[in-house]
Design a protein that fits this description.
It is built from six helices and nine strands; from the N terminus they run βαβαβαβαβαββαββ. Strands 3-2-1-4-5-6-7 form a seven-stranded mixed β-sheet, covered by helices on one side. It has a two-stranded antiparallel ribbon with strand order 8-9. With 208 residues, the chain is of the alpha/beta class. The protein binds 5-O-phosphono-beta-D-ribofuranosylamine. The site of 5-O-phosphono-beta-D-ribofuranosylamine has 12 residues, from helix 1, strand 5 and helix 6.
Amino acid sequence: MTKIAVFVSGRGSNFQAIIEAIGEGRLAAEVVLVIGDKPEIGAFDIAKKNGIHYTYFNKNDFESEENYDSAILAALEKYQVQLIALAGYMKKIGQTVIRGYKNRILNIHPALLPSFGGAGMFGVRVHKAVLGYGSKVSGVTVHLVDDEYDTGVPILQRCVPVLEDDTPETLAARVLAEEHKIFPEALQLFCENKIEVNGRKLIVRKAG
Ligand code: GRF
């Protein structure tokens, strides 16, 4: 059973989808730790309800960025975390953690990267930008995390149509429904040891 840590900053619907996928046997993993960036986060209620340990790290509580990063890494190691899912986590992951979990940190983005990504592109802003551009499709990207925003190698991408009468909210809801399907699927590929990364080329092996 792969031990996963889920990083959150908000309501945690993707975290909930991960828990459901585990419960239904679609994801061979155990969420052993939930990490947030502030004390009050909706997703912590989900952790509480499911008896999952949760904690938060605020950069301002640490003397240096290095100490902050090391504290996160130490928590991950304490819980023997093998794989990290960023599920609506608003902070950049530090170098120490990225190095410690090379190609083992996945993020979900509510658009088809490299379009509509990067610093400042989050939440409803993404969907406003998609509609503002006049795109006919949008979608979801699950990608590996590197040290820039939204630039890591994609693992899975899936399209949803953009409808003529869409508002940012209706588009967000259609995208979110797809997010809830593909994040557990992408995590499962790692749990089955099917992913091989060679530079920007990602190969999904047939068997583990
Ligand atoms: C999702 O849209 C995800 O793609 C983005 O942040 C949002 C988090 O939503 N990275 P939730 O907290 O999982 O409901």
